[in-house]
Amino acid sequence: MTHSRPLAPGTWVVGKWTHRRWRIRGVLGTGANGIVYAVERDDGLKGAMKVCETAGQVAFEWSLLNLVRGPGSPFPAPQQIDDSDRPGARFFYVMERISGKPLDKVWPTLAPAMRKQVMIRIVEGLAKLHATGHAFCDVKPQNVLVQEASGEVRFVDPGGVTPFGKAVRQFTPTTDGAFFGLCDRRASAAYDVFAVALMAVSLEAQCPANLYDLPPEKRREWLLRAVADQVDGAWRPVWSRVLRREIRDADALRAAIAEVRVKDKARQAGQRDWTAAFMWASVASAVLTTACAWALYLRII
After folding, report:
1. All structural domains of the chain
2. Which of 19, 81, 241, 264 has a CA positioned 20 to 30 A from the CA of residue 60?
3. CA-to-CA distance for 153 and 53, rounded, in angstroms?
4. pLDDT tens, 9-19?
């Protein structure tokens, strides 16, 4: 898609059919098939407006959001779909504006236990999507928003979601199993499971500059070395099982992640555990106090 110049903040977009007015507040992101704006409706409702090049693209994403809507949905709730006469926003829909930060931005700040919780919630969200017969197909850190305090996870950019069995239309090479020769580039639960493992590796291992120039077998060799040498040892068995094709669906991946034994935060950070030292110091203090009391009683001191 060739994007036109983004709409300026303050611009009003008026729905042709609903006659609702949405004010542009800024650009949230630009994807392969559209621009997403932060918007506010004329009655104060906040949202995120996805502007696409064709009505068909808008209709497909809108139908998907309605398919997976409801309590616990990982995707934004749909709010409105319409057309407008505004250049640069002819075909659009508006969805819930999700707060949070991209996974790659918060990952370094998360405690080990919270990392595990976030990964479980990512996989649970994918399981809900897979139950509808669709795969995300563009799992990557930028499409996963995390609330740092609660660990709540939501997905953004449903533009790549594809029915099982269909060719993947939108993907990111470093989280694309086909890029590493691990699977076909067709939508499936396994395709997303590979993507989760690849995303996890990308959060801890630096890709070589020439990765894109290597053939798939060489890319796969680098990937296996990265898992062996750079990934946290607690997680290594899980991602290795995925890459060996032993884990092929979200439920199996969730079960494997649930078994991961994360390290204590203080020990993980290389800090000394003072619990034992404090306990023995308390015991020594009590003994010394008792000895002094007896000494005074017996008039030794």
Report:
1. 12-95 (3.30.200.20), 101-265 (1.10.510.10)
2. 19
3. 29
4. 999 999 999 99
Q: How many CB atoms lie within 10 A of CB 32?
A: 14
Beta strand residue intervals within the chain, DSSP E: 12-14, 21-31, 34-41, 46-52, 78-83, 91-95, 101-102, 134-135, 144-146, 153-155, 162-163
Closest C-alpha among 272, 257, 251, 271 to residue 131? 251
d(CA 237, CA 256): 9
Q: How many CA atoms lie within 13 A of 17 on its CB side?
A: 8
CA 152, 265, 127: angle at the middle one, nearest 5? 30
Amino acid at 212: Y
In residues, how long is the chain?
301
- Spatial separation of the C-alpha atoms in residues 211 and 226, rounded to whole Å: 13
Output the CA torsion sign for 83, 88, 92, 96: negative
Whether the CA torsion 26, 90, 101, 175 is positive or negative: it is negative
Instruction: Determine the pLDDT at residue 30.
Output: 84
Q: What's at 58, amino acid-wise?
A: V
Write down the pTM of the prediction. Answer: 0.81
Radius of gyration of the chain measured on its C-alpha atoms: 26
